[in-house]
Amino acid sequence: MAAVESRDCPVIRALTFDVLGLIKAIQSSYASTSPKIVETWGHPDSSNSILSASLNDSKFNPLLAVARKNGHIELVNPLNGDIHSSRIIENGVEDPIVALHLFKKDPTDSLSRECTLVTCTRKGNAALRSLEVDKTPSEDSTCNDSVTTWNVCSSGEVLCSAVHGNESQALFGGKGVEVNLWDLETRSKTWSSKAPPKSSLGIFTPTCFTAATFLNKEDHHKIVAGTDNHQVRLYDISAQRRPVISVDFREAPIKAVTEDIDGHTIYIGTGSGDLASIDIRTGKLLGCFLGKCSGSIRSIVRHPEIPLIVSVGLDRYLRVWDVKTRQLLSAVFLKQHLTNVVIDSNFSDLGTTGIAVDALSDEAQLNQNEVDASPPVKRKKGDKKLKSKKKSKKIVEEEDD
Amino acid sequence: MGGKRKNGEDDNNDIEEKEEGSVNKKREILPSLIKNKQKRSAVHAKVKHEKKREKKKKSKAREAAERRALELGEEPPVKAIPRTIENTREVDETVCMPDDQELFAGNDADEFSSILKQESAPKILITTCRFNSSRGPAFISELLSVIPNAHYYKRGTYDLKKIVEYANNKDFTSIIVVHTNRREPDALLVMSLPDGPTAHFKLSNLVLRKNIKNHGNPTSHKPELVLNNFTTRLGHRIGRMIQSLFPQDPNFRGRRVVTFHNQRDFIFFRHHRYVFDSKESKGTKAKDTKGENTLQGNVVARLQECGPRFTLKLTSLQHGTFDTKGGEYEWVHKPEMDTSRRRFFL
What we know:
The complex is a heterodimer of chains A (401) and B (346).
Chain A: H1 2-6, E1 13-18, E2 23-27, E3 36-41, E4 50-56, E5 63-68, E6 72-76, E7 83-88, E8 97-102, E9 114-121, E10 125-132, E11 146-151, E12 157-163, E13 169-175, E14 177-183, E15 188-192, E16 209-214, E17 222-227, E18 231-236, E19 245-248, E20 254-259, E21 265-270, E22 275-279, E23 284-289, E24 297-302, E25 308-313, E26 317-322, E27 328-333, E28 338-343, H2 354-373, H3 381-400
Antiparallel strand pairs in A: 1-2, 1-28, 2-3, 4-5, 5-6, 6-7, 8-9, 9-10, 10-11, 12-13, 13-14, 14-15, 16-17, 17-18, 18-19, 20-21, 21-22, 22-23, 24-25, 25-26, 26-27
Chain B: H1 2-20, H2 25-28, H3 37-72, H4 101-109, H5 113-116, E1 124-128, H6 135-146, E2 150-152, H7 160-169, E3 174-181, E4 184-192, E5 198-207, E6 224-228, H8 233-243, E7 256-263, E8 266-278, H9 289-294, E9 299-305, E10 309-319, E11 328-332
Parallel strand pairs in B: 1-2, 1-3, 6-7
Antiparallel strand pairs in B: 3-4, 4-5, 5-10, 7-8, 8-9, 8-10, 10-11
């Protein structure tokens, strides 16, 4: 542990959400490099358990949306924890919300005190809600909200969802639900994946997607999904409905998938606490993040500027990792099972570390350029098959000898 | 470790002496430098014997000092505390503090709180792995006598997930699966229902009741439960899980006590009964106040073991009920955790 603390952690601020409904703010200041809990908001109660959270990370008026187990959606100020408004969703307890995304506001109409969220429940009822942000927490009311709902899937359970960076596309996937891509403006399904064919033994594995994300901020054509069957798949909408690449990783279900800003590296977390990064263009494992991580990883977040990722999970720790060296920078014990984490990227320790952060981000960009310089290698499924055939041929030859 | 280091230091001293060219010829030769095995072992034996004598001398001197202090009515010299790997254990931030409000809130919200608050009574289903014979059934029959309100069900060829479903319908609160390998119980799966965690233990050193000398036979009273040294957050959770197997209102007339003692991540299980012997010849005082209340005269309290006796080691704690394929783990033992002997998780 002493070795961990000696490595200094850059200045970050993260918010974690746990099963008792507590929101904890963790930040590492310039003075003390190891991150600490600075604030705890909320009353501990198991019915308050936070299922999903989303942060609108703008410079002015940042806003945090939180979905709870008892069917509440709350809008929270991420700086001081004030609850701006709280809504009860119908059937919130029987049909809990699994995914929630808060739209980034346009900077032009920052005066309007409305925000839009897209939510999806376990049974596949997606909804686009626009809520009014009150400065004073009022009575739970749903009268002045405009809600448009639609159904994402007819059967099965939705387990994961992601909204693309331009906020016009959203994907949903789950147990018995293939990855669906929906246009949020017209609310129409634009694409859905197809289950991979039966294996050579005729075994068909039932669909179960446990994590999914868009690979790139700019185009929405590439989707990365993790399955219950410890597979990471890359889908290309413009190419085909079946996965372009699928990679096996260890033996536990993939519980978290997060994309890097460089557009080809992804970070995956499994149900038994393994964290790894994969270059999805080739499907090669870049390396594992080692560090006594013993519980299922629930959420991974990449810092938008500093090259580091933050992971939380059932082992009650928040861990900060260096992306380049894959070393553990620091770990914070937070006492509860953690479900989600978000990073407040605008945080800087009273401006004293602005320069350092900039330098780091420059470095990150440089590194990116280096990586981007290498031509992207795409390996299609056909290549793989060819290779395997060659291999089998070789083996046959050897046997003949 | 300490002993080894001491040896090393002695060796260094020897080398220094050698360099100085000391008079003592025998001291300077290390046994490991001698190539002839017979001579080497002879020298080694001599060194060992000398060390032993020195140690004896030291302890005698210590004893004498103590006795002298007693005679003179002075404060006896402070007893040295031996260094063990437990009292030099690595600093662990997850150790529970008694003044932690969040911990209590977490306890109130966890899966075992309804049983531990006595809102519902524990009801345990015990079953086995598919193939089960010899010591397995014997162990289960003893477990049935240890845990009140436990019911044995034949495993048959049912899937464990089906059994979980069945137990949920019948309002069981926990399932224990005894896994045997080569007719010897070697693993224990403790599952808390309906959605509680699943703990997987390695089971070793099983001694059944009939193999314990002077064993007693337990009564059907509800036992007392002793949980020792479950200190960390994970240990606390395991302790609560074990606690939820037993009824929370012990019957003190029954004088049965069940102990789960954690030491270096191994959980030792013992099952005893209190015995209060009334003896007239000896003038010893009864330590137990209960004994004094019930019996007149001089009473000696002692413990009588009534088996079984076994050791558990946690290998994983799974979130939710048994699910090997899609299950999430709260804690899994991984080989990279074993880089220090002084790191404990419970």
